[in-house]
Write a structure and sequence with these properties.
404 residues; alpha/beta; Aspartate Aminotransferase, domain 1; Aspartate Aminotransferase, domain 2; 2 domains; seven-stranded mixed β-sheet; 14 helices; 40% helix; 14% strand
Length: 404
């Protein structure tokens, strides 16, 4: 697809977001950013809830969630009955891991490019059950898909029960060859739990054809929905195994008008579901920003991420760390190792160098310890409000501060 917008300008008015204009915000991939108009829609939903809480929560919420879920399902290529809302992708991963029953001797595969929170969940369930976590070491920089596929498949044994895979790696930004991996694992009798936190709105999705047993993704990142909106997809043959983290009224409901899967996840206690109800509005608004809709948005953001990576690599005098086909709207580049005493600050795990750049240069860009401190990656995101001069500014700063 031809990208009709110029990369040297934002693709839409940055004032559509509430972002601080004094900050060069290159970290959409962390928590996303929700447009003003979507937040206004969410506020209207909240006002309706507070005007008549019983009417909203008891009589109106379920059908409205059904409508929102159907719209999201169409966007991600899933049947609505196979999709439920969760609060975030980490909750989706935890939901699956804490529903499944593992026993001593079972093996659970994860990669060294996985998200730390989800790795912690895997360690938790393995320690409790006696299962063993097996780590597939994936390279970065990398040259091709086989360097990602072969290490994972090499970990499969007759004891392998599950593989937790990222669709888009959080630290490296690498788009994994997920369809090939899911297919190859399935042929070996291994289910895949895909952490697709970054994929919705960044990559075209068809979850039914992907064939993963479990897939979870965020709506608050690249779809730009409010925080607290995410989904969990479970293949029909696995739904009886999966229960929400919060067991509530659905566990003994006598309803027969929908699946037990939908009944249990449809109500887990009183909470604010306005973020989930706002997902269709986020998809509609974002899709209206460019003539080509979502396909053009994805293409434009990817083109900007690739252009940003190019200028950063030139400034750092390094080769691009992976071929372009592994890039979506995130791109990471290796930078000089952090000093041994430059430990991340708590509770947000922000490296002092990242905080220093924010304070001195007004740049919000993450530094990822990978594969382990003190080795670091610098990761940039590309969203509609970003433009190439912002990354060129970062590149000049890098060249002045990190090169001899």
């Amino acid at each position: 697809m031809n990208v009709t917008t110029h990369l040297d300008q934002p693709a839409c008015d940055p004032r559509e977001w509430l972002l601080d204009p004094q900050v060069v915000f290159l970290n959409h991939g962390a928590f996303g950013a929700c447009p003003r108009r979507v937040l206004e829609f969410q506020n209207e939903v909240r006002a309706r809830m507070e005007r008549q809480p019983l009417q909203f929560l008891v009589r109106e919420l379920e059908p409205e969630l059904d409508t929102a879920r159907s719209a999201l399902a169409q966007f991600v290529g899933a049947e609505p009955e196979n999709l439920v809302f969760v609060s975030n992708a980490t909750a989706g991963v935890n939901t699956v891991l804490r529903s499944l029953v593992f026993k001593p001797g079972d093996e659970l595969i994860v990669t060294n490019q996985g998200y730390n929170a989800c790795r912690n969940a895997l360690d938790f369930v393995s320690a409790r059950s006696g299962a063993r976590v097996v780590i597939a070491n994936l390279p970065f920089p990398l040259r091709g898909a086989e360097e990602l596929i072969a290490p994972i498949l090499a970990c499969v044994t007759p004891h392998t029960r599950l593989a937790l895979l990222d669709h888009v790696s959080s630290p490296t930004g690498v788009v994994m060859p997920i369809k090939r991996l899911v297919s190859a694992l399935s042929a070996r009798g291994v289910d895949a739990l895909v952490d697709g936190a970054h994929a919705p709105g960044m990559l075209p999705l068809n979850l039914e054809s992907l064939g993963a047993a479990y897939y979870t993704g965020n709506c608050h990142k690249w779809l730009c929905a409010p925080k607290g909106a995410a989904f969990l997809y479970v293949r029909p043959g696995r739904q009886k195994l999966i229960h929400p983290l919060i067991i509530s009224h659905g566990a003994n409901s006598s309803r027969t008008d929908r699946s037990r899967f939908q009944i249990e996840f449809g109500w887990t206690g009183t909470c604010d579901m306005s973020a989930c109800l706002s997902v269709p509005e986020a998809m509609r608004f974002m899709g209206s920003l460019l003539p080509g809709g979502w396909p053009e948005i994805m293409a434009r953001n990817r083109a900007l991420a690739l252009a940003a990576r190019k200028v950063l690599c030139m400034a750092l005098q390094i080769e691009e760390p992976c071929p372009p086909e592994f890039i979506g709207s995130l791109a990471a580049v290796p930078i000089s190792d952090a000093s041994p005493d430059a430990l991340p600050t708590l509770p947000v795990n922000e490296y002092p160098l990242q905080a220093d750049w924010r304070i001195r240069h007004g740049i919000e860009v993450p530094i990822m310890p990978w594969p382990a401190a003190p080795k670091c990656l610098l990761r940039v995101s590309a969203q509609m409000y970003n433009s190439l001069p912002q990354y060129e500014f970062l590149a000049r700063m890098l060249a002045g501060e990190l090169l001899p």
